[in-house]
Amino acid sequence: MTREEFEELVAEALDRIPPELTRLMDNVAVFVEDEPPSHDPELLGLYEGTPLTDRGEWYAGVLPDRITIYRGPTLRMSATREDVVQETEVTVVHEIAHHFGIDDERLHALGYG
């Protein structure tokens, strides 16, 4: 799968997020990278920033939070295009949930591990 095709899957996954949630997202940008940092080669996605639940009056004038979805590990773990579509959607939801302050333990319980 080309990078462009993968980027389109990420965009489609974002489009499936309910509008009532996307309206609440604040100061966050989503990126696609080919590979994760070398110290974590299996990483599918990464949220970097300050979750909405941790922001206070001090939160102003900061760079956007960053969600990165990694193409390489997703493709390597997927046997079919359908697997890539499903894993990409799960990863996008997982990282957006971190933006909302939901931790990994709760995400695993909800099936977004």
TrEMBL record:
Q: Which Gene3D superfamilies match?
A: 3.30.2010.20
Tell me where on the tree of life, at the top rank, the source sits.
Bacteria
InterPro entries noted in UniProt: Zincin_1, Zincin_1_sf
Which SUPFAM superfamilies does the record match to this protein? Metalloproteases ('zincins'), catalytic domain (SSF55486)
Q: Which protein, by its recorded name, is this?
A: Metallopeptidase family protein
Tell me the organism: Streptomyces botrytidirepellens
Q: What is the lineage of its organism?
A: Bacteria, Bacillati, Actinomycetota, Actinomycetes, Kitasatosporales
